[in-house]
Specification:
182 residues, alpha/beta, Rossmann fold, 2 domains, four-stranded mixed beta sheet, three-stranded antiparallel beta sheet, 6 helices, ATP binding, nucleotide-binding, vWFA_dom_sf, ATP-binding, VWFA domain-containing protein
Length: 182
């Protein structure tokens, strides 16, 4: 715990008396945790680009959710963010290696048209597992993982959840992801 902040977790007792003596104006009396996290997050956001999303007007909610998640995660500086759209075809719109900014965000939103005829869930899960495995391997090679930082991968799937394929195979694919700590 370090620092002189206006908000925080604990009060710095040494700053308390000057705070009261200044008629409560010198209010930087709080301490915060400043140690870096022992985890590096790789977060993949998958958005359904199928026609059914447009029928229910879930497309607007999906894009708002995408913007909210990206803004929140970048402000927390939690790690790397990647965005993928899926339907009949899968397309990676933003990969982990690029920093996220407003220009990238507008480019990503323009790529969604919500006109794909169906959602291929099996293809999505297979591509997601392969992409996350490749990202983990390249991340381990780049950082050599000698500093003890754990790589954690998360995948958020934003969809209307209309699953036409075999649900049992999808369940098995999801269990494979869980077993790989993805």
């Amino acid at each position: 715990m370090k620092g002189d902040y206006k908000t925080g977790k604990r009060i710095n007792i040494n700053k308390l008396i000057p705070y009261i003596a200044s008629s409560y104006r010198k209010d930087k009396i709080w301490l915060r945790r400043t140690k870096a996290s022992k985890r590096n997050y790789q977060i993949l956001l998958c958005i359904d680009d199928s026609f059914s999303m447009g029928i229910n007007k879930a497309n607007i909610l999906a894009l708002e959710s995408l913007a909210l998640l990206v803004k929140s995660l970048t402000s927390l500086e939690i790690g790397e963010i990647s965005v993928m759209k899926f339907g009949e075809k899968i397309e990676l719109l933003h990969d982990f290696n690029n920093n996220f900014n407003d220009f990238n965000g507008s480019y990503i939103i323009e790529k969604f048209n919500f006109k794909q005829k169906q959602t291929n869930w099996k293809l999505l899960l297979e591509n997601t597992m392969n992409y996350l495995n490749q990202a983990k391997l390249s991340n381990n090679n780049n950082r050599n993982n000698s500093n003890g930082i754990e790589n954690v991968q998360l995948c958020f799937i934003i969809s209307d959840a209309r699953i036409q394929q075999d649900r049992e195979n999808l369940r098995n694919n999801i269990m494979d992801c869980i077993n790989r700590n993805q």
